[in-house]
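Methods — Computational structure assignment.
A single polypeptide chain was analysed. Its primary sequence is given first, followed by the predicted tertiary structure written as structure tokens.
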Amino acid sequence: MTINQNISISFLTSLINAVADPIFVKDENHRFIVVNDAFCNFVGIKYNNLIGKNDYHFFSEKESAFFWATDAEVLATGQTSINTEQLTTPDGKIKILSTKKSRFEDHDKQKYLVGIILDITEIKQLELELKEKNKELKKYINRNLDFEKFTYIASHDLIEPLRSIISFSQLLQRRISDKITDEEKDFLLHIVSSAKHMGAINAGLLRYSHINTNTIKPQYFNVLNLLKQIQHQSQSILKVNNIHVELDLEAPTIFADPNYIAQLLQSLIQNAIIFKKNNTTTKIKIKNCVKNKHWLFTISDNGIGIEKQYFDKIFLIFKRLHNKQDIPGLGMGLSICKKIVEKHNGEIWVESEIAKGSTFSFTIAIPPQQQNNAL
């Protein structure tokens, strides 16, 4: 069958060959009468082999039946359709298509079907991979939540046994100290010391899991006033350690959980105190501003600094860079800081140079409805 003489097949073929997407034209008997080069390349069949034949000549019965049914509906109703279709080429390749089909008529009322194909195989493959990744992520999140619940329960249940170990060991020390050897006294001291250390770790784990399992309660508050309060509460420690704190806040009012932000700022100030240089005045500068729809905070010091290779590792739980005999701590402070920042949809990072100091930066996302007020 040919199209009405008013429409030249050669002209139509030339026209659709200028289009990069596969295009085909079928008659009312579902036979291919015009296809472009892109269609031939796509299905892997030569032009002369396609013309005058229908889908059943090339594709599986199931696929051909689907093509035929959607073609028939468009030819009968004149309603344009867009369908997701699967096509297996003669060389066995499976492709996923998004095919737009429309009907047009010539001057003799002959009906024809025009189809334009978009190859979405890679997109669908990525969708499937994304679904699998999401499944894996959900499993991981669920496992992580279960682990966090277990950590919280286990840590909570360990409080009383640890207290008992410490109390009874100290009681034993007092009662039999004059009846045991110095070596045995050391054993008891070691038991008490180890139990206290385990208690400190346990308390840290409780704080860490508490952040994960509880929702934040954001509100507007003045973070400058909060920092001044922290300064006042820490004035004796700051004085003893010869530490000067400077505050420079461009955005003193923020929307966040004040309790968690207080814990975050106290930990970062404490970190600067712990890693200060000896025999010098330690300077801590705290700044903030609004940047990229976030409140950006920086806490800078002139302490001992951190090697670049440890910039990411220091935020891992129980990660210590120094011997606990040299510098106290459990290696949990910065991991807790990271959890608090993540709870506020922000990020935390460090920049540092050995012997020159460190700058810890963190962001807190500004809620969309508050962004105009914050700028």
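Note: The longest strand covers residues 94-105.
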